[in-house]
Amino acid sequence: MKIAVVGTGYVGLVTGTCFAETGNTVTCVDIDQEKVKKLQNGKITIYEPGLEQLFERNLKQGRLAFTTNLKEGIEGAQIIFLALPTPPGEDGSADLKYILKVADDLGPLLKDFTVIVDKSTVPVGTADKVRERVAKGAKVEFDVVSNPEFLREGVAVEDFMKPDRVVIGTNSARGRKVMEQLYQPFVRQGNPIIFMDERSAELTKYAANAFLATKISFMNEIANLCESVGADVDSVRKGVGTDSRIGKRFLFPGIGYGGSCFPKDVQALAKSSSDVQYDFKILKAVMDVNADQKTRLIPRVKEYFNNNLKGKTIAVWGLSFKPHTDDIREAPALYNIDLLLEAGATVKVHDPEGMENVKKLVGSKIQYCETPYEAAEGADAVFIATEWPEFRTPDFEKLSSLLKAKVIFDGRNLYDLSVMKELGYAYYSIGREVVH
Ligand code: NAD
């Protein structure tokens, strides 16, 4: 099939590349000229494990192309995916300006029956709005289908190639048939394509993200309670996670969730609910808990240094909002860095993939280091913000020799308490005993 993907960010580039990988001819469109130029020159624009190889192969074999020109990009396409941003507006609702602008532009450009697919995370009713806007300029028939994306950054290619499920919202038999055909290679192992109406599909995406965010915030509250009552969250986690109704995943406490999806999607769902006079109480609590949790270790840091961080150097390990991505949107690390700087500390950072993006945002207020050890050299403490695998088993002997004092504030519970005790570290983590 010939496919166009409008918006070539984290979702668009993975979507386009993976559809090309299954033999389709894909053109990705983006308004960011620099991004498109890079991609046309064979340079990948995001870090996502496994993506580069697929990107290079499909580019070389002529199944993947990039353009800034919408008309050129959709020429001959049977399916047009919208993988555009839906950032939070001032009131917390998803801002649809990018989607609706492209919908306006698409109408007059359609030459034949086309299926237009919302892949962005959009509030209930967006498919209707897109249909209305396209219809204004269109002279041919078209369908609008909702196909929310569930990929996780860091394992996006795997998630896209072997999805747990594909959700497709459409009431059109024609649209359904085209989508079924397109996704067949991705569900060969028997995972389902779940068809439903558009509104339910739109809500499914928000329900999934809000549920996962709730699971995280719930476990973070249990961890906080553990600290107050002298329980150990690792034991509690294992004790509850083995219940098959609860499951082991998404139960690890830490300094909160971040990223481009959970924060904005929980907020948008809360706003959509209040727009229809539904008071979604749990979501408010989830947002409150996460707002506090992100910087939960900062009072500990201040207390440790007798409320005086002036002249202290903190090595921050991890900047991206989670491991295996260079995405720093809403990353808890950034909130903590701000507070450390505000308190007068010097901050040295290391992240395997996120440093370039942080440099663009934060600039020279912090020092960027090539390795975690370089960041630790001469520092008064290490602060762990992201659970990159390379931080899990550092050379503690080397680390101890580089640090001014053996102190770790661990926002991701990477180390065994017994190991920290043995090594003589002061060790603060989440929901567990403090090691002095
Ligand atoms: P992104 O910001 O990485 O990419 C969006 C791209 O759209 C950018 O490259 C931007 O330049 C481009 N764009 C903006 N206006 C355009 C226009 N008029 N024409 C062409 N291109 C235009 O965003 P993303 O992370 O890929 O997210 C896209 C959507 O997918 C959002 O709704 C998001 O909530 C959803 N989503 C994201 C993830 C994720 O993990 N990132 C997962 C599932 C769903």
TrEMBL record:
It catalyses: UDP-alpha-D-glucose + 2 NAD(+) + H2O = UDP-alpha-D-glucuronate + 2 NADH + 3 H(+). Residues 315-417 form the UDP-glucose/GDP-mannose dehydrogenase C-terminal domain. GO terms for biological process: polysaccharide biosynthetic process; UDP-glucuronate biosynthetic process. Pathway: Nucleotide-sugar biosynthesis; UDP-alpha-D-glucuronate biosynthesis; UDP-alpha-D-glucuronate from UDP-alpha-D-glucose: step 1/1. The keyword Oxidoreductase applies. The active site is at 261 (nucleophile). Signal peptide: none annotated. NAD(+) binds at residues 30, 35, 86, 121, 153, 264, 329. Substrate binds at residues 150-153, 205, 250-254, 258, 322. It holds the Pfam family UDPG_MGDP_dh_N. The keyword Oxidoreductase applies. Keywords: NAD, Oxidoreductase. Its EC number is 1.1.1.22. One of its GO terms (molecular function) is NAD binding. Catalyzes the conversion of UDP-glucose into UDP-glucuronate, one of the precursors of teichuronic acid. NCBIfam families: NDP-sugDHase. Belongs to the UDP-glucose/GDP-mannose dehydrogenase family. This is UDP-glucose 6-dehydrogenase. The lineage of its organism: Bacteria, Pseudomonadati, Bacteroidota, Cytophagia, Cytophagales.
